[in-house]
Amino acid sequence: MAATGIPPDAPDVLVTSRPLDEYCALFDLTRARLAALPGPLLDCPGGAAGLAAEARELGCRVVAADPAYALPLPVVADRARAARAAMAAAMAARPHLYPAPRPDRPGRYLRSWDRARELFAADSAAHPQRYVAAALPRLPFADGTFALTLSGYLLFAYPELFGPERQLAALAELVRVTAPDGEVRVQPLCDGRGRRCDHLDRLRYALGERRISSEVHRFRRAGDDRTRRVLVLRAADHRRRAGASIM
Asked: Of 52, 57, 50, 51, nearest to 77 (Cα)?
């Protein structure tokens, strides 16, 4: 298998339905910061999240990109319901990986996913142009399109899908479509079992070779004593640099 290839037995990516407040908590953002963005926000992968619908109420323009959007909306909704069931099972089986939000009230947390999924279904039906069928590491957007780019639960969460070279290509692509004065935020930096990426330093070095600066931003999530980590990327320019390999 090539370093950038996807194995035939790779798992499907869960189509999750996270609400706006969960995005803020996961990426260390605030509603005020989103409202003040000077340009549009990219959510990649967007899944069946409520972000685009909710952030629009703040005056924030959001474009969501996900290969699942090539499917009929009822199929995407079915996959989102399956992801909700998978999350419920994971929280029951490995509670130490899900200490927040509200570890004593998982039902309430999962109901927030239900509301987000309903918002997504209504918004994607009413505004299909905001939901673009696309998959990393190639996106159909011009250089510097977005003021802020978010990528959650993909590049490090599924090492079977994204090996080191594919991660590098995907991260560089996210930076390419982000404005020079904007930033890319990526989380989590571990897989679905909580195992940290063991080549993150090499990956960051390779990004530097492409003139992409990186920072592991650490913060405390409200209501949780654990330290969270988000990879923050910025670029001096968006020109592709050849020969940047981490292998």
From this structure: 50
8 A C-beta contact, residue 34 and residue 55 = yes
Instruction: Measure the CA–CA gap between 125 and 108, rounded to whole angstroms.
Output: 26
* Rounded alpha-carbon distances, angstroms, from residue 84 to 89, 170, 190: 9, 26, 20
Cα–Cα distance between 192 and 187 in angstroms, integer?
A: 12
Residue 111, helix vs strand vs coil: helix
Peptide bond into 188 cis (omega under 30): yes
DSSP string, 147-202: EEEEEESSTTT-TTT--HHHHHHHHHHHHHTEEEEEEEEEE-SB-TTSPBPTTHHH
pLDDT tens by residue, the chain, 247 residues: 233 344 444 468 999 999 999 999 999 999 999 999 999 999 999 999 999 999 999 999 999 999 999 999 999 999 999 999 999 998 888 777 665 555 547 888 999 999 999 999 999 999 999 999 999 999 999 999 999 999 999 999 999 999 999 999 999 999 999 999 999 999 999 998 889 999 999 999 999 999 999 999 999 876 666 789 999 999 876 444 444 445 4
The conformation of residue 135, written as its DSSP 8-state character, comes to B
CA distance 29 to 237: 24
Note whether 154 and 136 are within 8 A (CB): yes
User: Which one, of 76, 68, 83, lies nearest residue 132 by Cα?
Assistant: 68
